[in-house]
Protein backbone atom coordinates (compact mmCIF):
# COMPACT_ATOMS: atom_id res chain seq x y z
CA UNK A 1 0.00 0.00 0.00
CA UNK A 2 1.48 3.36 -0.98
CA UNK A 3 1.70 5.81 1.89
CA UNK A 4 -0.06 9.16 1.70
CA UNK A 5 3.29 10.93 1.36
CA UNK A 6 3.98 8.77 -1.71
CA UNK A 7 0.61 9.39 -3.40
CA UNK A 8 -0.12 12.98 -2.43
CA UNK A 9 1.24 15.51 -4.92
CA UNK A 10 0.96 19.26 -5.32
CA UNK A 11 -2.42 20.30 -3.90
CA UNK A 12 -4.20 23.23 -5.44
CA UNK A 13 -3.43 26.56 -3.79
CA UNK A 14 -5.97 29.36 -3.73
CA UNK A 15 -4.82 32.87 -2.90
CA UNK A 16 -7.62 34.69 -1.07
CA UNK A 17 -8.57 38.27 -1.80
CA UNK A 18 -7.05 40.75 0.61
CA UNK A 19 -9.43 41.48 3.41
CA UNK A 20 -8.99 43.24 6.72
CA UNK A 21 -9.76 41.30 9.85
CA UNK A 22 -8.77 37.82 8.60
CA UNK A 23 -6.35 36.51 11.15
CA UNK A 24 -6.59 32.78 10.55
CA UNK A 25 -7.17 29.99 13.03
CA UNK A 26 -5.74 30.13 16.55
CA UNK A 27 -3.68 26.94 16.62
CA UNK A 28 -1.41 25.28 19.17
CA UNK A 29 2.29 24.73 18.54
CA UNK A 30 3.00 22.22 15.76
CA UNK A 31 -0.45 22.50 14.13
CA UNK A 32 -0.90 24.12 10.73
CA UNK A 33 -4.33 24.66 9.16
CA UNK A 34 -4.13 24.86 5.38
CA UNK A 35 -7.84 24.85 4.65
CA UNK A 36 -9.88 27.97 3.96
CA UNK A 37 -10.49 30.27 6.90
CA UNK A 38 -14.11 30.75 7.91
CA UNK A 39 -15.38 32.28 11.18
CA UNK A 40 -17.87 29.43 11.57
CA UNK A 41 -15.15 26.84 11.03
CA UNK A 42 -13.07 28.53 13.72
CA UNK A 43 -15.75 27.59 16.26
CA UNK A 44 -14.94 23.95 15.49
CA UNK A 45 -11.18 24.41 15.05
CA UNK A 46 -10.64 25.89 18.50
CA UNK A 47 -7.26 25.78 20.18
CA UNK A 48 -8.53 23.24 22.73
CA UNK A 49 -10.03 20.96 20.09
CA UNK A 50 -6.86 21.10 18.00
CA UNK A 51 -4.72 20.35 21.06
CA UNK A 52 -6.84 17.25 21.62
CA UNK A 53 -6.51 16.10 18.00
CA UNK A 54 -2.77 16.77 18.04
CA UNK A 55 -2.36 14.79 21.26
CA UNK A 56 -4.04 11.77 19.65
CA UNK A 57 -1.87 12.10 16.55
CA UNK A 58 1.34 12.33 18.54
CA UNK A 59 0.53 9.46 20.89
CA UNK A 60 -0.77 6.99 18.31
CA UNK A 61 0.69 7.83 14.89
CA UNK A 62 3.52 5.31 15.20
CA UNK A 63 1.01 2.62 16.19
CA UNK A 64 -0.96 3.40 13.03
CA UNK A 65 2.15 3.31 10.87
CA UNK A 66 3.01 -0.10 12.30
CA UNK A 67 -0.54 -1.39 11.70
CA UNK A 68 -0.42 -0.21 8.09
CA UNK A 69 2.99 -1.83 7.63
CA UNK A 70 1.49 -5.09 8.92
CA UNK A 71 -1.26 -4.73 6.31
CA UNK A 72 1.38 -4.40 3.60
CA UNK A 73 3.17 -7.52 4.84
CA UNK A 74 -0.11 -9.48 4.87
CA UNK A 75 -0.84 -8.28 1.35
CA UNK A 76 2.53 -9.59 0.18
CA UNK A 77 1.72 -13.00 1.69
CA UNK A 78 -1.66 -13.13 -0.02
CA UNK A 79 -0.18 -12.01 -3.34
CA UNK A 80 2.38 -14.80 -3.05
CA UNK A 81 -0.35 -17.43 -2.74
CA UNK A 82 -1.12 -17.31 0.99
CA UNK A 83 -4.62 -17.31 2.42
CA UNK A 84 -6.04 -15.45 5.40
CA UNK A 85 -7.08 -17.62 8.33
CA UNK A 86 -7.55 -17.91 12.07
CA UNK A 87 -4.50 -17.00 14.16
CA UNK A 88 -3.35 -20.00 16.23
CA UNK A 89 -1.69 -17.70 18.78
CA UNK A 90 -5.05 -16.18 19.78
CA UNK A 91 -6.99 -19.43 20.04
CA UNK A 92 -7.34 -18.84 23.79
CA UNK A 93 -9.36 -15.68 23.04
CA UNK A 94 -11.68 -17.44 20.59
CA UNK A 95 -12.29 -20.32 22.99
CA UNK A 96 -12.47 -18.24 26.19
CA UNK A 97 -15.69 -17.56 28.10
CA UNK A 98 -15.36 -13.78 28.40
CA UNK A 99 -18.08 -11.27 27.46
CA UNK A 100 -18.11 -7.60 26.55
CA UNK A 101 -19.43 -4.90 28.87
CA UNK A 102 -23.26 -4.76 29.02
CA UNK A 103 -24.94 -2.87 26.18
CA UNK A 104 -26.16 0.57 27.38
CA UNK A 105 -29.92 0.87 27.62
CA UNK A 106 -29.84 3.89 25.31
CA UNK A 107 -28.85 1.67 22.36
CA UNK A 108 -30.34 -1.70 23.32
CA UNK A 109 -32.80 -1.49 20.41
CA UNK A 110 -31.11 -0.97 17.05
CA UNK A 111 -33.46 -2.90 14.79
CA UNK A 112 -33.24 -0.36 11.95
CA UNK A 113 -30.33 2.03 11.42
CA UNK A 114 -30.10 4.63 8.67
CA UNK A 115 -26.78 5.83 7.29
CA UNK A 116 -25.73 8.86 5.30
CA UNK A 117 -23.36 11.79 4.94
CA UNK A 118 -23.20 14.72 7.35
CA UNK A 119 -24.83 17.37 5.17
CA UNK A 120 -27.37 19.46 7.02
CA UNK A 121 -30.68 18.30 5.55
CA UNK A 122 -29.58 14.65 5.57
CA UNK A 123 -28.79 14.88 9.28
CA UNK A 124 -32.26 16.25 10.03
CA UNK A 125 -34.09 13.79 7.76
CA UNK A 126 -32.17 10.79 9.13
CA UNK A 127 -32.67 11.75 12.77
CA UNK A 128 -36.38 12.23 12.05
CA UNK A 129 -36.71 9.04 9.98
CA UNK A 130 -38.06 6.91 12.88
CA UNK A 131 -35.05 4.62 12.57
CA UNK A 132 -33.53 3.65 15.90
CA UNK A 133 -30.05 4.90 14.96
CA UNK A 134 -28.55 7.34 12.48
CA UNK A 135 -24.94 6.67 11.51
CA UNK A 136 -23.51 10.02 10.40
CA UNK A 137 -20.74 9.20 7.98
CA UNK A 138 -17.40 10.95 7.50
CA UNK A 139 -16.15 7.95 5.53
CA UNK A 140 -17.58 6.18 2.46
CA UNK A 141 -20.68 8.39 2.09
CA UNK A 142 -18.71 11.66 2.20
CA UNK A 143 -16.38 13.33 -0.26
CA UNK A 144 -13.86 14.73 2.26
CA UNK A 145 -13.46 18.25 0.92
CA UNK A 146 -12.59 20.92 3.48
CA UNK A 147 -16.06 22.46 3.17
CA UNK A 148 -17.86 19.12 3.63
CA UNK A 149 -15.81 18.16 6.67
CA UNK A 150 -16.10 21.47 8.51
CA UNK A 151 -19.78 21.95 7.73
CA UNK A 152 -20.36 18.34 8.76
CA UNK A 153 -18.94 19.06 12.21
CA UNK A 154 -21.07 22.19 12.50
CA UNK A 155 -24.14 20.14 11.56
CA UNK A 156 -23.43 17.42 14.13
CA UNK A 157 -22.75 19.97 16.85
CA UNK A 158 -26.09 21.64 16.11
CA UNK A 159 -27.83 18.26 16.00
CA UNK A 160 -26.49 17.24 19.40
CA UNK A 161 -27.51 20.65 20.77
CA UNK A 162 -30.92 20.24 19.05
CA UNK A 163 -30.59 23.65 17.38
CA UNK A 164 -30.17 22.34 13.83
CA UNK A 165 -32.54 23.72 11.17
CA UNK A 166 -32.51 23.85 7.39
CA UNK A 167 -34.38 26.31 5.17
CA UNK A 168 -35.24 24.88 1.77
CA UNK A 169 -35.62 28.10 -0.17
CA UNK A 170 -37.00 26.41 -3.30
CA UNK A 171 -39.91 24.98 -1.28
CA UNK A 172 -39.92 27.74 1.33
CA UNK A 173 -39.91 25.06 4.01
CA UNK A 174 -37.95 24.95 7.27
CA UNK A 175 -36.81 21.57 8.55
CA UNK A 176 -36.08 20.93 12.24
CA UNK A 177 -35.80 18.00 14.61
CA UNK A 178 -38.82 16.10 15.91
CA UNK A 179 -39.24 15.59 19.63
CA UNK A 180 -38.14 11.97 19.26
CA UNK A 181 -35.12 11.24 17.10
CA UNK A 182 -32.78 8.39 16.23
CA UNK A 183 -29.68 7.82 18.36
CA UNK A 184 -26.59 9.32 16.76
CA UNK A 185 -23.55 7.23 15.87
CA UNK A 186 -20.59 8.75 14.00
CA UNK A 187 -18.26 6.93 11.59
CA UNK A 188 -14.81 8.50 11.20
CA UNK A 189 -12.54 7.71 8.28
CA UNK A 190 -10.32 4.63 8.22
CA UNK A 191 -6.70 4.52 9.39
CA UNK A 192 -5.34 4.83 5.86
CA UNK A 193 -6.96 8.16 4.98
CA UNK A 194 -5.16 11.46 5.67
CA UNK A 195 -6.52 14.92 6.31
CA UNK A 196 -4.29 17.07 4.13
CA UNK A 197 -5.81 20.39 5.18
CA UNK A 198 -4.41 19.97 8.70
CA UNK A 199 -0.74 19.30 9.34
CA UNK A 200 0.62 18.21 12.70
CA UNK A 201 4.36 18.37 13.26
CA UNK A 202 4.94 18.72 9.54
CA UNK A 203 2.83 15.79 8.29
CA UNK A 204 -0.84 15.43 7.31
CA UNK A 205 -3.14 14.61 10.20
CA UNK A 206 -4.73 11.17 10.34
CA UNK A 207 -8.26 11.61 9.04
CA UNK A 208 -9.94 9.50 11.71
CA UNK A 209 -8.32 11.52 14.52
CA UNK A 210 -9.66 14.74 13.00
CA UNK A 211 -13.16 13.25 12.62
CA UNK A 212 -13.27 11.54 16.01
CA UNK A 213 -11.37 14.22 17.89
CA UNK A 214 -13.35 17.26 16.78
CA UNK A 215 -16.71 15.54 17.21
CA UNK A 216 -15.89 14.05 20.60
CA UNK A 217 -14.32 17.22 22.00
CA UNK A 218 -17.27 19.46 21.18
CA UNK A 219 -20.16 17.08 21.81
CA UNK A 220 -19.40 14.48 24.47
CA UNK A 221 -21.00 16.39 27.35
CA UNK A 222 -24.26 17.41 25.66
CA UNK A 223 -24.57 14.05 23.94
CA UNK A 224 -24.46 12.18 27.25
CA UNK A 225 -27.23 14.42 28.58
CA UNK A 226 -29.54 14.48 25.56
CA UNK A 227 -29.02 11.10 23.86
CA UNK A 228 -26.76 8.75 25.74
CA UNK A 229 -28.65 8.53 29.03
CA UNK A 230 -25.32 8.98 30.77
CA UNK A 231 -23.23 6.98 28.29
CA UNK A 232 -21.64 7.61 24.90
CA UNK A 233 -20.82 9.12 22.50
CA UNK A 234 -21.32 6.25 20.05
CA UNK A 235 -19.22 5.40 17.00
CA UNK A 236 -18.81 3.03 14.06
CA UNK A 237 -15.26 1.89 13.24
CA UNK A 238 -14.47 1.13 9.57
CA UNK A 239 -11.99 -0.86 7.49
CA UNK A 240 -10.09 -2.72 10.21
CA UNK A 241 -8.17 -5.83 9.17
CA UNK A 242 -6.70 -7.02 12.47
CA UNK A 243 -7.30 -6.83 16.21
CA UNK A 244 -4.16 -4.71 16.65
CA UNK A 245 -6.11 -1.95 14.93
CA UNK A 246 -8.99 -2.41 17.38
CA UNK A 247 -6.46 -2.12 20.21
CA UNK A 248 -5.44 1.30 18.90
CA UNK A 249 -9.07 2.44 18.91
CA UNK A 250 -9.55 1.11 22.43
CA UNK A 251 -6.51 3.06 23.60
CA UNK A 252 -7.79 6.17 21.81
CA UNK A 253 -11.12 5.83 23.61
CA UNK A 254 -9.43 5.44 26.99
CA UNK A 255 -7.24 8.46 26.27
CA UNK A 256 -10.30 10.52 25.34
CA UNK A 257 -12.19 9.44 28.47
CA UNK A 258 -9.26 10.46 30.65
CA UNK A 259 -8.88 13.78 28.81
CA UNK A 260 -12.45 14.87 29.71
CA UNK A 261 -12.67 12.87 32.96
CA UNK A 262 -15.58 10.56 32.19
CA UNK A 263 -15.69 6.97 33.34
CA UNK A 264 -13.92 4.23 31.43
CA UNK A 265 -16.24 2.45 29.01
CA UNK A 266 -18.41 5.52 28.36
CA UNK A 267 -17.54 5.62 24.66
CA UNK A 268 -19.14 2.76 22.76
CA UNK A 269 -18.46 1.56 19.22
CA UNK A 270 -19.57 -0.98 16.66
CA UNK A 271 -16.81 -2.36 14.45
CA UNK A 272 -17.59 -2.99 10.80
CA UNK A 273 -16.44 -6.39 9.59
CA UNK A 274 -15.93 -5.30 6.00
CA UNK A 275 -12.55 -6.79 5.13
CA UNK A 276 -11.84 -10.45 4.49
CA UNK A 277 -8.92 -10.66 6.97
CA UNK A 278 -11.11 -9.22 9.74
CA UNK A 279 -13.63 -12.08 9.57
CA UNK A 280 -10.95 -14.31 11.10
CA UNK A 281 -10.37 -11.76 13.86
CA UNK A 282 -13.91 -11.08 15.09
CA UNK A 283 -13.42 -12.51 18.57
CA UNK A 284 -10.08 -10.78 18.88
CA UNK A 285 -11.52 -7.42 17.77
CA UNK A 286 -14.31 -7.68 20.33
CA UNK A 287 -11.82 -8.73 22.99
CA UNK A 288 -9.67 -5.65 22.42
CA UNK A 289 -12.78 -3.44 22.52
CA UNK A 290 -14.61 -5.38 25.23
CA UNK A 291 -15.05 -2.35 27.52
CA UNK A 292 -16.19 -0.16 24.63
CA UNK A 293 -17.96 -2.49 22.18
CA UNK A 294 -21.62 -2.62 21.26
CA UNK A 295 -21.22 -5.10 18.44
CA UNK A 296 -20.11 -5.88 14.91
CA UNK A 297 -21.72 -5.07 11.58
CA UNK A 298 -21.74 -6.94 8.26
CA UNK A 299 -20.35 -4.33 5.87
CA UNK A 300 -21.09 -6.60 2.97
CA UNK A 301 -20.32 -4.34 -0.03
CA UNK A 302 -16.86 -3.47 1.27
CA UNK A 303 -16.45 -7.14 2.17
CA UNK A 304 -16.92 -8.09 -1.50
CA UNK A 305 -14.45 -5.38 -2.48
CA UNK A 306 -11.98 -6.77 0.08
CA UNK A 307 -12.45 -10.34 -1.20
CA UNK A 308 -11.29 -9.29 -4.68
CA UNK A 309 -8.47 -7.15 -3.29
CA UNK A 310 -7.22 -9.87 -0.93
CA UNK A 311 -7.15 -12.42 -3.76
CA UNK A 312 -5.78 -10.10 -6.46
CA UNK A 313 -2.88 -12.52 -6.93
CA UNK A 314 -5.11 -15.63 -7.15
CA UNK A 315 -6.39 -16.28 -10.70
CA UNK A 316 -8.40 -19.24 -9.38
CA UNK A 317 -10.59 -16.95 -7.23
CA UNK A 318 -12.18 -14.64 -9.76
CA UNK A 319 -15.43 -13.00 -8.76
CA UNK A 320 -18.45 -13.48 -11.05
CA UNK A 321 -20.92 -10.69 -11.89
CA UNK A 322 -21.36 -8.46 -8.85
CA UNK A 323 -25.14 -8.94 -9.01
CA UNK A 324 -24.62 -12.67 -8.39
CA UNK A 325 -22.53 -12.19 -5.24
CA UNK A 326 -25.28 -11.95 -2.64
CA UNK A 327 -25.89 -13.48 0.75
CA UNK A 328 -26.89 -16.78 -0.85
CA UNK A 329 -23.25 -17.40 -1.75
CA UNK A 330 -21.79 -19.82 0.80
CA UNK A 331 -18.83 -17.62 1.77
CA UNK A 332 -21.13 -14.63 2.35
CA UNK A 333 -23.70 -16.59 4.35
CA UNK A 334 -20.93 -18.13 6.46
CA UNK A 335 -19.54 -14.68 7.19
CA UNK A 336 -22.95 -13.45 8.37
CA UNK A 337 -23.69 -16.56 10.46
CA UNK A 338 -20.30 -16.54 12.18
CA UNK A 339 -20.65 -12.85 12.99
CA UNK A 340 -24.03 -13.48 14.66
CA UNK A 341 -22.65 -16.40 16.69
CA UNK A 342 -19.58 -14.44 17.75
CA UNK A 343 -21.46 -11.30 18.79
CA UNK A 344 -24.14 -13.10 20.76
CA UNK A 345 -21.61 -15.29 22.51
CA UNK A 346 -19.90 -12.08 23.65
CA UNK A 347 -23.12 -10.26 24.57
CA UNK A 348 -23.30 -7.56 21.88
CA UNK A 349 -25.28 -6.66 18.76
CA UNK A 350 -24.87 -8.46 15.45
CA UNK A 351 -25.89 -5.89 12.85
CA UNK A 352 -26.97 -6.83 9.34
CA UNK A 353 -26.06 -5.30 6.00
CA UNK A 354 -27.12 -2.35 3.91
CA UNK A 355 -30.28 -2.04 1.82
CA UNK A 356 -29.18 0.52 -0.77
CA UNK A 357 -32.43 0.74 -2.75
CA UNK A 358 -34.08 4.13 -3.15
CA UNK A 359 -37.78 4.68 -3.91
CA UNK A 360 -38.71 4.54 -7.61
CA UNK A 361 -41.31 7.30 -7.57
CA UNK A 362 -42.27 7.22 -11.24
CA UNK A 363 -42.89 3.46 -11.41
CA UNK A 364 -45.05 2.05 -8.56
CA UNK A 365 -44.79 -1.54 -9.81
CA UNK A 366 -41.00 -1.44 -9.99
CA UNK A 367 -40.90 0.26 -6.59
CA UNK A 368 -43.01 -2.47 -5.00
CA UNK A 369 -40.85 -5.17 -6.59
CA UNK A 370 -37.73 -3.52 -5.17
CA UNK A 371 -39.36 -3.20 -1.74
CA UNK A 372 -40.24 -6.88 -1.80
CA UNK A 373 -36.59 -7.76 -2.43
CA UNK A 374 -35.64 -5.60 0.55
CA UNK A 375 -38.24 -7.31 2.75
CA UNK A 376 -36.94 -10.76 1.81
CA UNK A 377 -33.37 -9.71 2.54
CA UNK A 378 -34.34 -8.33 5.95
CA UNK A 379 -36.43 -11.40 6.75
CA UNK A 380 -33.35 -13.51 6.06
CA UNK A 381 -31.33 -11.31 8.41
CA UNK A 382 -33.74 -11.30 11.33
CA UNK A 383 -34.48 -15.03 11.15
CA UNK A 384 -30.74 -15.74 11.00
CA UNK A 385 -30.35 -13.82 14.27
CA UNK A 386 -29.29 -10.29 13.37
CA UNK A 387 -30.34 -7.65 15.89
CA UNK A 388 -30.78 -4.89 13.36
CA UNK A 389 -30.11 -3.77 9.83
CA UNK A 390 -29.02 -0.81 7.71
CA UNK A 391 -30.91 1.30 5.20
CA UNK A 392 -29.72 4.26 3.16
CA UNK A 393 -33.04 6.02 2.53
CA UNK A 394 -35.81 7.08 4.95
CA UNK A 395 -38.37 5.50 2.60
CA UNK A 396 -37.09 2.03 3.52
CA UNK A 397 -37.37 2.47 7.28
CA UNK A 398 -41.08 1.47 7.68
CA UNK A 399 -40.78 -1.75 5.64
CA UNK A 400 -37.61 -2.89 7.42
CA UNK A 401 -38.95 -1.91 10.83
CA UNK A 402 -42.07 -3.99 10.17
CA UNK A 403 -40.04 -7.09 9.24
CA UNK A 404 -37.86 -6.91 12.34
CA UNK A 405 -40.72 -6.08 14.71
CA UNK A 406 -42.88 -8.91 13.37
CA UNK A 407 -40.09 -11.35 14.19
CA UNK A 408 -38.61 -9.80 17.35
CA UNK A 409 -41.77 -8.49 18.97
CA UNK A 410 -41.11 -6.27 21.98
CA UNK A 411 -37.63 -7.63 22.59
CA UNK A 412 -35.04 -4.92 21.85
CA UNK A 413 -32.60 -7.43 20.34
CA UNK A 414 -31.82 -11.15 19.94
CA UNK A 415 -28.52 -11.23 21.82
CA UNK A 416 -29.68 -13.78 24.35
CA UNK A 417 -32.33 -15.60 22.29
CA UNK A 418 -30.40 -16.46 19.09
CA UNK A 419 -27.01 -17.93 19.97
CA UNK A 420 -26.48 -19.65 16.59
CA UNK A 421 -24.30 -22.37 18.10
CA UNK A 422 -24.59 -24.21 14.77
CA UNK A 423 -22.34 -21.52 13.29
CA UNK A 424 -19.52 -22.36 15.71
CA UNK A 425 -18.41 -25.16 13.39
CA UNK A 426 -17.78 -22.83 10.45
CA UNK A 427 -14.15 -22.99 9.40
CA UNK A 428 -11.70 -21.33 7.01
CA UNK A 429 -12.95 -23.38 4.07
CA UNK A 430 -16.50 -22.07 4.60
CA UNK A 431 -15.33 -18.47 4.78
CA UNK A 432 -13.10 -18.76 1.71
CA UNK A 433 -15.26 -20.90 -0.56
CA UNK A 434 -15.00 -19.73 -4.15
CA UNK A 435 -18.09 -17.81 -5.29
CA UNK A 436 -20.10 -19.35 -8.11
CA UNK A 437 -21.51 -17.60 -11.13
CA UNK A 438 -20.77 -16.29 -14.60
CA UNK A 439 -19.12 -13.20 -16.04
CA UNK A 440 -20.94 -10.98 -18.53
CA UNK A 441 -20.28 -8.00 -20.74
CA UNK A 442 -23.23 -6.24 -19.14
CA UNK A 443 -21.50 -6.41 -15.75
CA UNK A 444 -18.34 -4.90 -17.23
CA UNK A 445 -20.46 -2.11 -18.68
CA UNK A 446 -22.29 -1.54 -15.38
CA UNK A 447 -19.02 -1.44 -13.46
CA UNK A 448 -17.69 1.16 -15.86
CA UNK A 449 -20.80 3.36 -15.69
CA UNK A 450 -21.09 3.20 -11.91
CA UNK A 451 -17.38 3.74 -11.30
CA UNK A 452 -17.07 6.77 -13.57
CA UNK A 453 -20.29 8.44 -12.42
CA UNK A 454 -19.54 7.90 -8.76
CA UNK A 455 -16.04 9.35 -9.12
CA UNK A 456 -17.38 12.33 -11.10
CA UNK A 457 -19.80 13.09 -8.27
CA UNK A 458 -17.16 12.51 -5.58
CA UNK A 459 -14.82 15.00 -7.26
CA UNK A 460 -17.56 17.66 -7.07
CA UNK A 461 -18.27 17.07 -3.39
CA UNK A 462 -20.89 14.29 -3.36
CA UNK A 463 -20.03 11.00 -1.66
CA UNK A 464 -23.50 9.47 -1.67
CA UNK A 465 -24.89 9.25 -5.21
CA UNK A 466 -28.21 7.92 -6.59
CA UNK A 467 -27.48 5.66 -9.57
CA UNK A 468 -29.91 3.27 -11.24
CA UNK A 469 -32.30 3.13 -8.26
CA UNK A 470 -29.53 2.54 -5.71
CA UNK A 471 -27.84 4.99 -3.36
CA UNK A 472 -24.18 4.30 -4.07
CA UNK A 473 -21.23 5.17 -1.88
CA UNK A 474 -17.51 4.48 -2.20
CA UNK A 475 -17.82 0.71 -1.66
CA UNK A 476 -19.89 0.29 -4.84
CA UNK A 477 -17.35 2.20 -6.89
CA UNK A 478 -14.54 0.17 -5.35
CA UNK A 479 -16.21 -3.08 -6.42
CA UNK A 480 -16.57 -1.64 -9.93
CA UNK A 481 -12.90 -0.73 -10.03
CA UNK A 482 -11.31 -3.86 -8.57
CA UNK A 483 -13.53 -6.26 -10.48
CA UNK A 484 -12.71 -4.53 -13.76
CA UNK A 485 -9.02 -4.64 -12.84
CA UNK A 486 -9.23 -8.35 -11.97
CA UNK A 487 -11.05 -9.28 -15.17
CA UNK A 488 -8.53 -7.33 -17.23
CA UNK A 489 -5.49 -8.78 -15.47
CA UNK A 490 -6.57 -12.39 -15.94
CA UNK A 491 -8.38 -12.08 -19.28
CA UNK A 492 -11.68 -13.35 -17.92
CA UNK A 493 -13.90 -15.09 -20.42
CA UNK A 494 -17.39 -13.55 -20.63
CA UNK A 495 -19.22 -16.85 -20.43
CA UNK A 496 -22.56 -15.65 -19.11
CA UNK A 497 -24.06 -14.02 -22.18
CA UNK A 498 -22.92 -16.34 -24.94
CA UNK A 499 -20.19 -14.04 -26.21
CA UNK A 500 -17.25 -16.21 -25.23
CA UNK A 501 -14.83 -13.31 -25.64
CA UNK A 502 -12.07 -12.52 -23.19
CA UNK A 503 -11.65 -9.18 -21.44
CA UNK A 504 -8.63 -7.29 -22.75
CA UNK A 505 -7.53 -3.68 -23.15
CA UNK A 506 -9.16 -3.31 -26.57
CA UNK A 507 -12.53 -4.56 -25.33
CA UNK A 508 -12.31 -2.44 -22.19
CA UNK A 509 -11.46 0.64 -24.25
CA UNK A 510 -14.54 0.13 -26.43
CA UNK A 511 -16.69 -0.39 -23.32
CA UNK A 512 -15.39 2.84 -21.77
CA UNK A 513 -16.10 4.76 -24.97
CA UNK A 514 -19.61 3.32 -25.21
CA UNK A 515 -20.44 3.96 -21.57
CA UNK A 516 -19.15 7.53 -21.63
CA UNK A 517 -21.50 8.16 -24.56
CA UNK A 518 -24.34 6.55 -22.61
CA UNK A 519 -23.60 8.65 -19.53
CA UNK A 520 -23.70 11.80 -21.66
CA UNK A 521 -27.12 10.77 -23.03
CA UNK A 522 -28.46 9.97 -19.56
CA UNK A 523 -27.29 13.12 -17.77
CA UNK A 524 -27.60 15.51 -20.72
CA UNK A 525 -24.93 17.29 -22.71
CA UNK A 526 -24.88 20.42 -20.57
CA UNK A 527 -24.39 18.57 -17.26
CA UNK A 528 -21.85 16.27 -18.87
CA UNK A 529 -19.85 19.22 -20.19
CA UNK A 530 -19.86 21.07 -16.85
CA UNK A 531 -19.23 17.95 -14.78
CA UNK A 532 -16.06 16.03 -13.93
CA UNK A 533 -16.87 13.01 -16.08
CA UNK A 534 -13.76 13.16 -18.26
CA UNK A 535 -11.46 13.56 -15.26
CA UNK A 536 -13.28 10.71 -13.51
CA UNK A 537 -12.96 8.54 -16.61
CA UNK A 538 -9.22 9.11 -16.73
CA UNK A 539 -8.85 8.24 -13.03
CA UNK A 540 -11.08 5.17 -13.23
CA UNK A 541 -9.58 3.70 -16.39
CA UNK A 542 -6.07 4.43 -15.15
CA UNK A 543 -6.70 2.46 -11.99
CA UNK A 544 -8.42 -0.40 -13.82
CA UNK A 545 -5.51 -0.81 -16.22
CA UNK A 546 -2.66 -0.23 -13.75
CA UNK A 547 -0.18 -3.13 -13.42
CA UNK A 548 -0.48 -2.93 -9.63
CA UNK A 549 -3.87 -2.59 -7.94
CA UNK A 550 -4.21 0.50 -5.77
CA UNK A 551 -5.52 -0.31 -2.30
CA UNK A 552 -8.10 2.48 -2.34
CA UNK A 553 -9.44 4.51 -5.24
CA UNK A 554 -10.04 7.57 -3.06
CA UNK A 555 -6.37 7.93 -2.08
CA UNK A 556 -5.48 8.78 -5.67
CA UNK A 557 -8.60 10.85 -6.27
CA UNK A 558 -8.07 12.82 -3.04
CA UNK A 559 -5.34 14.90 -4.70
CA UNK A 560 -8.04 16.50 -6.84
CA UNK A 561 -10.10 17.91 -3.93
CA UNK A 562 -7.36 19.20 -1.64
CA UNK A 563 -7.10 23.00 -1.80
CA UNK A 564 -4.52 24.78 0.34
CA UNK A 565 -4.95 28.42 1.37
CA UNK A 566 -1.99 30.60 2.38
CA UNK A 567 -4.01 32.21 5.17
CA UNK A 568 -4.96 29.52 7.63
CA UNK A 569 -3.11 29.41 10.92
CA UNK A 570 -1.96 31.99 13.39
CA UNK A 571 -0.59 31.67 16.88
CA UNK A 572 -1.90 34.38 19.12
Automatic annotation (TrEMBL):
Residue ranges occupied by any Malate synthase TIM barrel domain in the UniProt entry: 183-433
**The protein's name:** Malate synthase
SUPFAM superfamilies from the entry?
Malate synthase G
EC top class, as a word: transferase
Q: Which residues form the Malate synthase N-terminal domain?
A: 29-91
Which family is it part of?
Answer: Belongs to the malate synthase family.
Write down the chemical reaction(s) this protein catalyses: glyoxylate + acetyl-CoA + H2O = (S)-malate + CoA + H(+)
- State the EC number(s): 2.3.3.9
- Has keyword Iron-sulfur? no
Which part of the chain is the Malate synthase C-terminal domain? 440-561
Q: Which PROSITE patterns match?
A: MALATE_SYNTHASE
* Molecular function GO labels: malate synthase activity
Question: Lineage from the top down?
Answer: Eukaryota, Viridiplantae, Streptophyta, Embryophyta, Tracheophyta
UniProt KW Transferase keyword: yes
Pathway in which this enzyme or protein is active: Carbohydrate metabolism; glyoxylate cycle; (S)-malate from isocitrate: step 2/2
Give the UniProt subcellular location, in the record's own words. Answer: Glyoxysome
Which NCBIfam families has this protein been placed in?
Answer: malate_syn_A (TIGR01344)
- State the UniProt keywords alphabetically: Glyoxylate bypass, Glyoxysome, Peroxisome, Transferase, Tricarboxylic acid cycle
Amino acid sequence: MASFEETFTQPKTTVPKKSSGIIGYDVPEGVDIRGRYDPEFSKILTRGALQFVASLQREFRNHIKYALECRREAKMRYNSGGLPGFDPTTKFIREGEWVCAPVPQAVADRRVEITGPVDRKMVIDALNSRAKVFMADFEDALSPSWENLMRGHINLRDAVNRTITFHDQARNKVYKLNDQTAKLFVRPRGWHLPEAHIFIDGEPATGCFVDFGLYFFHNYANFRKTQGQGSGPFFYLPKMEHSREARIWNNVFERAEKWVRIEKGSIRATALIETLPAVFQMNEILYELRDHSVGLNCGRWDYIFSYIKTFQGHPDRLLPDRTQVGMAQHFMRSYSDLLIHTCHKRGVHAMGGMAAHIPIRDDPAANEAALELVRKDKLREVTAGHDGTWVTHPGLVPACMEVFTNNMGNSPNQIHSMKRRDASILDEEDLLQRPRGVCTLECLRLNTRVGIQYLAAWLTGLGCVPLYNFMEEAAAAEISRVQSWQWLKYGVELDGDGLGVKVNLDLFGRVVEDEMARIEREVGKEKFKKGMYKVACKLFTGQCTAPVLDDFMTLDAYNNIVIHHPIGSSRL
